[in-house]
Design brief:
Elements lengths: L1 E6 L5 H17 L4 E7 L3 H7 L9 E4 L6 H10 L8 E4 L11 E4 L4 H4 L3 H13 L5 E4 L2 H10 L7 E3 L6
Parallel strand pairs: 1-2, 1-4, 2-3, 4-5, 5-6, 6-7
Helix pairs in contact: 1-2
């Protein structure tokens, strides 16, 4: 089975740290597993990978930085038939792939949930359009899980939490 780890839209400092740790864990613990990792060039995540020994890994594919632009991401995430290229998908940036039947989204953009600024309201609409009933979403806290359930039409069984539990 082929796995794709998609982090082409990841560029923030915090999200890049999490993505880097997940990528490193995947590479070091899954040497016999068939997977590909997609990142964007000249991003914070790309810099972290460049300064590590992961740069020579043939499983990491660098896409042009244009892939981080939100309208480009929307087109890719809405129309690209990603399931033709993989059996499983882990998405580590802001938006899920609409056409993926077996996807986990690591949701790390709380502004989509909490901000009332126009740009975040627009991103929330895009996010809603891209959500499907099949997607599994990993949220960071129980509070985010509760807010997510109130804002989006998704089953509680499709939400995973456990990395950063509220205490």
């Amino acid at each position: 089975m082929q796995l794709i780890l998609w982090a082409a839209g990841t560029n923030g400092e915090g999200s890049s740290k999490v993505a880097f740790k997940l990528i490193k864990a995947l590479i070091t613990s899954s040497k016999n597993y068939n997977f590909k990792i997609f990142i964007s060039s000249k991003s914070t995540l790309d810099e972290a990978i460049n300064t590590s020994n992961l740069i020579n890994n043939s499983k990491i594919y660098k896409l042009p930085k244009i892939y981080r632009i939100y309208p480009i991401q929307l087109i890719i995430k809405f129309f690209f038939p990603v399931d033709l290229f993989c059996k499983a998908l882990i998405t580590l940036d802001d938006f899920p792939f609409r056409n993926s039947a077996n996807q986990i989204l690591y949701f790390h953009q709380p502004n989509i949930l909490y901000s009332d600024k126009l740009i975040w309201k627009l991103k929330r609409i895009v996010f809603t359009i891209l959500l499907t009933k099949k997607i599994k979403i990993f949220v960071q806290t129980k509070h985010m899980k509760k807010t997510f359930l109130n804002k989006f039409n998704i089953k509680a069984t499709n939400l995973i939490t456990g990395l950063h539990f509220d205490r």
